[in-house]
Amino acid sequence: MSPGWTPQPQRNPVVGWRLWYVRDGRLHSWNVDYFWQKGPNKAECRRDVGTGCPDPPGKRCQCGLWGVWKLSDALNRVLASTSEDNLIVGVISGWGDVALHGGEGFRSEYAKVRCLFTDRPWLSDPSYIPLKKRSFLSALFGRSQAPPAPPTESELGRVAEYYRVPLLSIARAADLGFLGEIGMEKKYVKEALA
Amino acid sequence: MGLTIPETERVFIPEETPLQLPVEMPEEKPEKEPVPA
User: CB pairs under 8 A, 24+ apart, for B20-29?
Assistant: First the structure.
């Protein structure tokens, strides 16, 4: 080791699961009106002007670019609050100022998409209401438009190309060691495969 | 719907921290003394 080199305590970026809507060939947040950018995204507090956090992720706020440790948590959140089927699963890494939320996930100042997946695990989730039934319920309760159709695999491919990230199955990403490579803990890889 | 567990810790993570390898620093060479003209 050369004199003058001092090891610095460092942390790797945090890695978490997310779901997005696929809209216009891009990733759109399912809970706020925001298209994810390719490369780094910077968090903004979306509370009213004047009351928003100056430096997201704010304390006692929900702002920031967030991901959750477990795929099942990401699915539960989205499926509880959407009637749309045009979803995609992915993994993000977060850095900068990062608020950790125990065993649940994180809110970060910066984040980027690292990988997108072809899997649609919600199809086997007992709480998932199939699209046709939801379309019927939407019509019954006065929604004039049926929910958008799920993206095809070629559409997913174009989205991944736009963000310059791999599009894989979760099993393939685990086999390749890709999820570990980008910093996901083994237990969360296992949980996603279960 | 955001995160339900309150914030438990706050950390700062630099963007690129893939590996922690020692960096070879070039040796400093003493400057030559100017030669009087």
Answer: B20/A7, B20/A8, B20/A10, B22/A1, B22/A2, B22/A5, B23/A2, B23/A5, B24/A2, B25/A2, B25/A3, B25/A4, B25/A5
Interface test with B, best of A81, A106, A109, A112 (most B CBs within 10 A): A106
Which residues of chain B lie closer than 8 angstroms to A77, CB-CB?
1
Distance from CA of B30 to the nearest CA of A (A): 17
Mean pLDDT, chain A, as a whole number?
85
> Could you give the ipTM of this predicted complex?
0.74
pTM for this entry: 0.79
Residue A72 CB: number of other CB atoms within 10 A?
16
Round to whole Å and give the CA distance between A146 and A60.
Answer: 37
Using the predicted structure, report yes or no on whether residue A9 has a pLDDT greater than 70: no
